[in-house]
């Protein structure tokens, strides 16, 4: 049999890197991290569109154990996130475990050998005792199902495959989508395009962005006295936590907290857009928090510029020359930008085929039944498998909260295995069902269930109409459970001795 690694991790973004760091801390050195791209960094390697920046304050959007005193702005540009990922990989010596351009297509549990067998696109196999998938929530681009796109004579660019060689200066540009990505990109496109048409299906809540350069003396203080940056992080985390817990998760009991967020966005819109007709088009008709709001000071003003049109009539089709809307009007275009987001529920949960015990196919099982993973990380019938991008795993607003919660879960679970001399873990059906029941009940209080989200078209909702992406608890509670969950929620066993 070919070599069996301690663990195979799929994905070299911040999630996969956190998992590798945790496994190294626990004494595992034979790791392999499979990454389909040609470098590490996940979303911060793939996304390179103009205007890309983090939309969580940078001192909060980083590993708590590896603060970066050098962020240039409160909301750092994407390139700094990518550089930070590189720095962490080198400092924690995990780059040597990574294989780039390594496209995994599927994984199956070999019960007899108690190992995971990962199949690569070239037909080779990689084996590991543990399998961890860290394939991101927003990693499978969504192409819009609009007739005729393939016949467009100009350039078509999805935001996840940005091409600097596509000339935008002086061109007629159309952009489909008004999510967080488009909100960052549109002001940049408008600066260079001769004419820009923005195709909006559903408006997004946009709040003011309190951004700015981090002054040199502040950066120096962060570097010299790390406690100062920790304090800044605590403030940032607390604000995000209040927004999430009070404004979104406790909507039923605290509707006023949600109303504060909505009012802040509406005030921002009123201040920046004076034309009542344009303002009406930009006003969401669903509750704040049903889909992810965003921050920008330049998005609304861009839409008021004379060479920018906001088109809200439904797109009928695309032809060689441009976009035709259902009222028969057409816009001739040279470049078509697709800011159409990601396909989570059909293509991302999980991102590769994963087959566990008794031939259970995880994606099919989730889609045919209900999406659930115990504590957002493990699934019955999938021994020695941690799915880091799972239903109910996303906790809080900064992804790093989720990553570090999952690192704590790994520490407790794998630590218990090591202490007992076990080789295999598997979460019990009962623990998984109890967790699902608890999360379902909590969701009842959230804006997703108690609010008005029907028209939001939010990617938080899956094909069963359930908003099971975000964990409906505080991050403190998520972290506490990760560090203290009952160990008998798992069955720990020894692998059978091979005949
Ligand atoms: P998104 O939020 O899913 O937005 C996709 C947009 O495309 C929506 O406006 C959607 O309209 C539109 N669309 C999709 N298919 C369409 C079709 N067939 N016809 C017309 N319109 C169509 O994707 P995103 O903007 O890429 O953002 C995804 C997430 O990435 C964000 O929520 C955020 O979490 C993250 N993000 C983070 C940052 C950051 O931290 N810096 C930046 C960007 C994004 P509907 O709403 O009507 O479906």
Can you tell me about this structure?
This protein has 499 residues and is α/β, with parallel strands linked by helices. The chain is built from 14 helices and 20 strands. The protein has helices at 14-25, 43-46, 78-91, 180-192, 216-224, 226-249, 255-272, 276-281, 299-303, 362-368, 399-420, 429-443, 447-450, 475-484, and strands at residues 4-10, 31-35, 98-100, 104-110, 115-120, 125-133, 155-158, 172-176, 195-199, 206-207, 294-295, 308-311, 315-318, 322-325, 330-332, 335-338, 353-355, 385-387, 424-427, 490-493. Strands 1, 2, 3, 4, 5, 6, 17 and 18 form an eight-stranded mixed sheet that branches. Strands 7-16-8-9-12 form a five-stranded parallel sheet, with helices on one face. A three-stranded antiparallel sheet has the order 13-14-15, with no helix packed on it. The longest helix has 24 residues, at 226-249. The chain starts with a strand and ends in a 6-residue tail after the last strand. Residues 53-55, 138, 144-146, 176-182, 184, 199, 201-202, 292, 315, 339-341, 457, 459 line the site of NADP nicotinamide-adenine-dinucleotide phosphate.
- Major pleated sheet: 8 strands, mixed
Query: How many beta-strand runs?
Result: 20
Put simply, the count of helices is 14
- Provide the β-strand percentage band: 15-25%
Shape: globular
Give a list of the ligands.
Answer: NADP nicotinamide-adenine-dinucleotide phosphate
CATH topology of the largest domain: FAD/NAD(P)-binding domain
**CATH homologous superfamily of the largest domain - what is it?**
FAD/NAD(P)-binding domain
Rg for CA atoms: 23 Å
CATH domain class name of the largest domain: Alpha Beta
| Overall number of structural domains | 2
The secondary structure category is alpha/beta
Please give the alpha-carbon distance between the first and last residues. 14 Å
Low-confidence stretches: none
Average pLDDT score: 95
Q: Which architecture of the largest domain does the CATH hierarchy give at level 2?
A: 3-Layer(bba) Sandwich
Q: Helix amount, in percent? A: 25-40%
């Amino acid at each position: 049999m070919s070599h069996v690694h301690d663990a195979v991790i799929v994905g070299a973004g911040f999630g996969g890197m956190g998992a590798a760091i945790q496994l190294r801390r626990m004494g595992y050195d034979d790791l392999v991290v499979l990454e389909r791209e040609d470098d590490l960094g996940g979303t911060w390697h793939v996304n390179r569109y103009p205007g890309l920046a983090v939309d969580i304050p940078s001192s909060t959007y980083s590993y708590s154990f590896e603060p970066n005193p050098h962020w240039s702005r409160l909301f750092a540009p994407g390139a700094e996130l990518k550089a930070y990922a590189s720095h962490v990989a080198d400092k924690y010596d995990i780059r040597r475990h990574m294989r780039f351009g390594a496209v995994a297509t599927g994984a199956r549990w070999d019960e007899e050998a108690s190992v995971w067998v990962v199949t690569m696109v070239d037909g080779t196999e990689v084996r590991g005792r543990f399998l961890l998938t860290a394939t991101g929530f927003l990693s499978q681009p969504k192409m819009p199902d609009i007739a005729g796109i393939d016949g467009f004579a100009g350039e078509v660019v999805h935001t996840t495959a940005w091409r600097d060689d596509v000339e935008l200066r002086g061109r007629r540009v159309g952009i489909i989508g008004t999510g967080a990505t488009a909100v960052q990109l549109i002001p940049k496109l408008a600066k260079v395009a001769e004419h820009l048409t923005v195709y909006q299906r559903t408006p997004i809540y946009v709040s003011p962005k309190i951004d700015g350069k981090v002054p040199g003396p502040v950066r120096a203080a962060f570097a010299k006295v790390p406690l100062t940056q920790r304090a800044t992080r605590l403030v940032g985390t607390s604000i995000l936590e209040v927004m999430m817990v009070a404004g979104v998760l406790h909507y039923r009991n605290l509707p006023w907290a949600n109303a504060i967020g909505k009012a802040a966005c509406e005030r921002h819109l009123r201040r920046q857009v004076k034309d009542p007709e344009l303002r009406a088009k930009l006003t969401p008709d669903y509750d704040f928090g049903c889909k992810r709001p965003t921050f920008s000071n330049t998005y609304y003003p861009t839409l008021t510029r004379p060479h920018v049109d906001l088109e809200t009539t439904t797109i009928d089709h695309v032809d060689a020359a441009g976009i035709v809307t259902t009222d028969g009007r057409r816009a001739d275009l040279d470049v078509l930008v697709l800011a159409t987001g990601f396909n989570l529920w059909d293509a991302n949960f999980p991102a590769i085929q994963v087959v566990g015990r008794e031939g259970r196919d995880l994606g099919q099982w989730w889609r045919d039944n209900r999406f659930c993973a115990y504590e957002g990380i493990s699934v019955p019938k999938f021994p020695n498998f941690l799915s880091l991008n799972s239903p109910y795993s996303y906790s809080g607003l900064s992804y790093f909260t989720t990553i570090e919660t999952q690192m704590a879960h790994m520490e407790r679970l794998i630590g218990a295995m090591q202490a007992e001399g076990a080789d295999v873990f598997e979460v019990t059906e009962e623990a998984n069902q109890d967790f699902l029941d608890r999360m379902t009940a909590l969701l009842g209080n959230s804006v997703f269930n108690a609010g008005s989200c029907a028209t939001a078209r939010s990617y938080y909702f899956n094909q069963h109409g359930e908003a099971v992406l975000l964990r409906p608890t505080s991050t403190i509670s998520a972290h506490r459970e990760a560090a203290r969950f009952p160990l008998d929620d798992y069955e720990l066993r020894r692998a059978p001795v091979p005949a």
